[in-house]
Amino acid sequence: MWKDFFYYSRSQRQGIIVLLVLIIGVIAFRMLFPLWLEKRELEKDEAFEEEYSNFIASLQEKTQEKKKKPLYPSYSKMERKLVAFNPNTADSITFIQLGLPSWMVGNILKYRSKNGLFRKAEDFKKIYGLTEEQYKTLHPYIRIPSQQPEIKAPVEAVTLPEIKYENPVSEKREIVKYTPGTLINLNLADTTELKKIPGIGSVTAKKIVQRRRQLGGFYHINQLNEIKVDANQFESWFSVDENDIEKININKASLEKLRAHPYINFYQAKAIIEYRKKKGKIKNLLPFTMLEEFTEEDLERMKYYVCFE
Q: 184 - beta bridge partners?
């Protein structure tokens, strides 16, 4: 009975053999593949190390070749030639041909730029780095022409009569000041008119006009205190008309236009733009009393400079 259990047909036996071969193959692959992979990685590492070593070796060879090369290769090929030379006019090529190294040539040129001329052959000894032997070799070839100072005949001093020129244009014209009781519109007066008020000079007049241009006009004389001009001192001289103020259309002005005004900062200008996008046309400043970007003082100042057209 048990023999029947282990009996297989020919095709079944072939299938079992194939299955066993596949199982053995899978087991062998799992065992051998890591070894093959490790061997391959080791070969790659060895190849990389070899390439790296060759690369370092080639760099070292190039570095040694550069060190062997002279700093001035074109100069090193020059044949030494002793010729007569003037150390005050000779160029660097001439000094190289005389057998002097390039660094010493640089010292010669520096000496000429700082100390002037070589007045005699012995002055050439002062060059830093020049040995006694080099000086003795070059001394017979040094040629410094003698220069005689040009003698000029003395010129007698002639005293010319002093001439005075009258220039009425350059004379300072005295500014006529207004008499007390004169009243000037602060929003219309130019610098010339402002300077006619006692106590106001060119600097103060320019400050007032510049501030007025930034604001668009003044609604109260006390605004002069913002530019460090004493409003109390000039209160009796100025009148202010709010109708002369140039106002900003808050429903059409851009963010840049709004924030350019001294009384509107960036966050306030942005809040106005955002409110305009969400709610539409602005009719008054009342909605902004609920926003944290605005204080009562801010809105009080702004109301003179905005319109709602």
A: 238
